[in-house]
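Friendly challenge for the regulars: who can give me the structure tokens for this chain first? No prize, just bragging rights.
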Amino acid sequence: MNDVYHYPPVEPFRTGWLEPGDGHRVFFEESGRPDGLPVLELHGGPGAGTVPEYRRLFDPTRYRIVAFDQRGCGRSLPACETVNNTTAHLVADIERLRMRLGIERWVITGWSWGTTLALVYAQANPDRVLALVLRGAWTATREEADWFESGMERFFPDTLDRLQTRLPGVAPEETLSALFAIASDAQQSAQAREAAARDYSRFELWACYLEATPEQIEAELDSGPQLPIAMISAHYWAHRWFLDEGQIWTHLPSIVHLPCTLIHGRYDVVTVPRTSHRLHKAWPGSELVIVPRSGHMSSEPEMVSAITATMDQLAQRLGAPD
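First reply, four minutes later:
Bragging rights claimed.
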């Protein structure tokens, strides 16, 4: 696969752990320029963990790039832990990280579930946010959840045929719930749980890309254990992301004074462009970028170009060091 990124690979100049004192150890990293414009990259899922390639969306000579693995996933410990793992805990971790790093205000950017978390954090801490860049926005409404459960299958019905876990008698719209149940069942074998988790990820990954090959999907599945993704996702799904219905929309007026750019793939069927369009209409002064030939992933070529251009322009506007 061709290298789609505009900036070269960059390794962290610092890694560390947050110790909230409630049984979790939260891994974080910093890369780029230590005295650069601080930007926090929030990963998706819930449960996906940080993506090293996404450091390359930012100019490392201008940005201080901060990322962390949310509770229970990635390098954070314990893996798959759902106790003391709520949206409020994650928001507190973000603020704890900001203070730990001595950052006064920062740019918040995120992808998919990361946009949900970015919006909730900004609503809780508007004075700490310089700007928001939201990629594939998702606001955790019942309508969006219903689409995820049953709408994607209308466009990717053949993906169900690729699943390796046999689910006799399970309706298509119940597939994800059935896979979640197996992955979360401690009575099942480790192999059965991981296989169900892989199938959950397999179903979602096929829907994420505008174009993908079986080899590409399987390579992503082989990149690391999929059980944390399924278990943390199931936990947040079961508790409706620990948010009241419409909560983000109810509190949106508290942050519409902040600069915001919404970037969305035209053919994103995981988090549909309608959400970004609605946010744009409700957010005076916001910018909406619809990327013509992209799906949900931030790693697709035109999406990478759109994100990088946005972050470069933002660095210029906010006076990042040259």
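Strands lie at 14-18, 26-32, 37-42, 63-68, 106-111, 129-135, 260-265, 287-291. The CA atoms of residues 148 and 270 lie 6 Å apart. Your move, everyone else.
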